[in-house]
Hints:
- The chain has a domain at 1-54.
- It has helices at residues 35-48, 56-68, 74-80, 86-90, 97-107.
- The radius of gyration is 19 Å and the shape is elongated.
- The protein has 5 helices and no strands.
- The termini are far apart.
- By secondary structure, the chain is mainly alpha-helical.
Amino acid sequence: MLYFETKSTQIPDEPYFFRHTGGKGGVTPGEKYGEKMFTKVWNEACKLLNVDGVTLYAGTRHSSAIALRHYISPEQIKAATGHNTTKAFERYFFYDEDDLRKTYSLTLQDERGKRLAKAS
C-alpha cells in the first residue's frame, strides 16, 4: 500500500504536484513522479475509494485546473498542468459564474472600497 506524506508546505519551484519523499531505485527525494509511478498511485487510490472508470488523465487535468483557480493565475495553472496550447487548456479550465460575479463586483469599487455603480 502506498502512503502519502506531507513534508513541506512550500510550493516547489517546478510546477509538479507529486514528488518522491525518499530515494529508492535511483529516484532522488523531491523528484517528480514518473508516469508509471503516478499511474500506480492513482489506480490504488481509486481502488481504495471504490471509484471506477476515472482515468488518470481525465481525473487530474480537470480537477487540478479547477482546484487551483482560487490560488494562482490561469497562466500558472496552464504551466502546472502541462498544457501546451490554450485551446487544450480551455477544455479543462473554465470560469465559474460566481467567480465572474465576484470579479465584476470588485471592479465596481474605487480604491477606498466605495461602490462606483450598482451591480445588476
